[in-house]
Design brief:
By secondary structure, the protein is of the alpha/beta class. It folds into two domains: 6-152, Response regulator (Rossmann fold); 160-232, Arc Repressor Mutant, subunit A, CATH 1.10.10.10. The protein is built from ten helices and five strands, in the order βαβαβαβαβαααααα. The chain has a five-stranded parallel β-sheet, with helices on both faces. Helix 3 (66-84) links the parallel strand 3 and strand 4. The chain is globular and about 50 Å long. The termini are far apart.
Length: 238
């Protein structure tokens, strides 16, 4: 039996650009374009009706912009994760009804990109990305994108994330075990599961289990949000 195709929703207010994306996706045996939206509100409605796996989200659109639309789309996943807790499904914030969001931007070092990542986007692409990078990113976020991907979000996070000034705040890593803290520290540096496994002399399966537990305990949607959490908590050098 053939693997189900990855369902992609395109959100962009430029019909010609959106049409080009649709053609690229339609040409792939493992991808399927399930809809095109031209503003953020339309995107939210389509997410509810067509249930995409991945959303390609333009940042700047009339009406509701891509940052606000991303927050609305991914917020359900964060709430579900918080409700499930560590004893939930084992895939933090990753339920079938919550797609991965890839934001599209004309400027790589853009504060709006950071806010979209903070709102729950899994990755970003500049609009001059090659078809190979576009398609690879769609497949990558669907399977779990590392920050070591060529279109890394780490440099944007480093530039725009600011530690919150909270006096006498409790330890933000209190829910984590000693081993989970070690894994957390390596993840903040953008290491892949394989690199973390090599550093700590663990199997990749064990590292993956630790990553899932960390995301659940800290109520984070994914690795990108974990790094943002680390920078804003003053823990990026852990």
């Amino acid at each position: 039996m053939a693997e189900p195709r990855i369902r992609v929703l395109i959100v962009d207010d430029q019909p010609l650009f959106a049409s080009g994306l649709e053609l690229q996706i339609a040409a792939q045996a493992d991808l399927e374009c399930v809809g095109v939206a031209y503003d953020g509100r339309e995107a939210i409605a389509l997410v509810d009706s067509v249930r995409p796996d991945v959303v390609l989200m333009d940042l700047r659109m009339p009406g509701m912009n891509g940052v606000d639309a991303t927050a609305a789309i991914t917020g359900a996943g964060v709430r579900a994760q918080a409700a499930n807790g560590p004893s939930g499904s084992g895939k933090a914030g990753d339920c079938a009804s919550v797609p991965k969001v890839v934001v599209l931007t004309t400027i790589r070092r853009d504060e709006a990109v950071f806010h979209a990542l903070r709102a729950g986007a899994s990755a970003f692409l500049t609009k001059d990305a090659t078809p190979a990078v576009l398609l690879g990113t769609i497949r990558g976020v669907h399977s779990g994108l590392d920050l070591t991907d060529p279109e890394s979000s780490l440099d944007v996070i480093q530039e725009f994330a600011r530690p919150a000034a909270v006096a006498d705040a409790p330890d933000p890593l209190a829910p984590l075990s000693v081993r989970e803290r070690e894994v957390f520290g390596l993840l903040t540096r953008g290491l892949s599961n394989a690199e973390v496994a090599s550093t700590l002399f663990l199997s990749e399966a064990t590292v993956k289990s630790h990553v899932q537990a960390i995301l659940q305990k800290l109520q984070l949607r994914g690795r990108v949000q974990l790094v943002i959490f680390a920078y804003e908590s003053g823990l990026a050098a852990v």
